[in-house]
Fold this protein.
Amino acid sequence: MKFLRNLLASILGSLVAFMIIVGMFFIFIALVGSMDDGVVVKRNSVLELSFVAPVLDYTGKDDNDPFAALWVEELGLDEILHSIAVAKNDDNIEGISLTTGFLQAGISQAREIRKALIDFKSSGKFVMAHSDVYAQRDYYLASAADEVYINPVGVLDFKGLATEVLFYKGLQEKTGIKMEVIRHGKYKSAVEPFLSDTMSDENRTQIKELITSIWSVIVDDISESRNITPQNLNIIADTLGGRTPEYAVASGLLDGALHYDQYEDLLKEKIGVAEDEELNYVGLMDYMRKAKLKKINKGSDDIAVIYAQGEILIGEGGKNYIGEKLIVDALHKAIDNKNVKAIVLRVDSPGGSALVSDIIWREMQLAKKEKPLVVSFGNVAASGGYYIGVGGDMIFAEPTTITGSIGVFGTIPNVHELAENMGVNAEQVGTNENSVDYSFFEPMTDTFRNVMQESIEETYDTFLDRVSKGRNMSVERVNEIAQGRVWSGVDAHALGLVDELGNLEDAIIAAADMAGLEEYGVKKYPRYKSGFEQFMENYGSVKTKIGESIIQEEIGTEAYKILKEFNQFTKQEGIQAKMPFSLNIK
């Protein structure tokens, strides 16, 4: 009886849950149906840019998805740039007010938005900025504005770039859980945290040179916009000369310290609105809905832009990771579409599976036999990300792109010491000498390590060969600048690893030129799951998300970050062509 009672309770619970989901579905239908199809932008409006969600290069939204507006987990860089470009020629938009704080975007993404704002100003319209707090990335973006203001008791961070690498050797010794490591590349230090408690000289050198190169680009951009020499900007950073609003204004980083109502008075003055009248603001999310109906690039022919973003993993792929299926399917669709005359692959990836990288590289080789294929690197195109990009006819990178990292490694978890400490003994039985190749519960044998090292060397040699042919360099020259070393876009260009410094738009223009097109549209691939499909998946993973949030709350943000990073390594499959460290520039 107890079994039947529990069974009936489970069935009833499932029915109730199903009814709730169906009810929510129809509520969403009603909400979407009641939403105005168009956004009304009044005369003398100000476009307010406040980036309230993480920025991806591409969110893959289906314009025909009625639920798209209800799920705003990320913002698409492509949509942001398009909206700013549309606003430039919108007679109802007088200017832009940038009010963002803690921009959740990469340096290269911030630079693209910054360039779009500068282009917007070329129309004669204004860009103003105000914030209570400016992190360095926020200030870098805001410095493109005509005038930059801060709350009188606000905070501005301007001290140069830094990054932090976590090391786990001590943790492994204490827990008895370790990572067995096989690698090739003097700078392939993604696995260094498992081998040491301190940073190697080689790793310190490459990180120092990388962030110094990126900082130089940032300083030069700010120097041009704020009319402060790079030398003085570095003095301000070294002396923390912007640490208070008063110092920041005196140093020239800011134009003034104003409360928000005072800042609004300046906006009203710029567009001729009386002080006692309300400003007409239009938010970024609303304006995106209007802007997507406006086509900037027009023509009967198309340039296909295929977005590859996230870590490279075995599987289908999605907006947060690169799998072979979605990218290969996208390449096939672009080739088969008679209106598509050229292809641009946009890469934003630290790398990952060497196998998947080579599968995509091969498809790139086949695709460029059919149509011109240009590659655009975003925030990161390192290791496997560079691997797939080198298959194109031409490569563009931002000066701040992190790229290169031509190297290979493999990591395999091992719990022998933990098992031994807990009194667990594993015994293996096999039919042949090498049938038991590896056990998590036993130390790695020399035979298995040698076989893995051989595979690593073969993969590395293949990587060198791909780069050699793609960049028209000798294998010896590629090996000199490889070894897992990462470079900024500026240095990669000087070394011949990329062809041109430029953004996605530059790559699209180059592709159109290669195809002989003067007028063209842009067709984006791939399409990701619809909002409703995402909702259904999220509903099913609510328990997991709640569990993760509880763990984070209990152990703290920093400890949770360490746990996730360590856990990510344990899930890697096969040989990895991945960036040599987890880099969070701040």
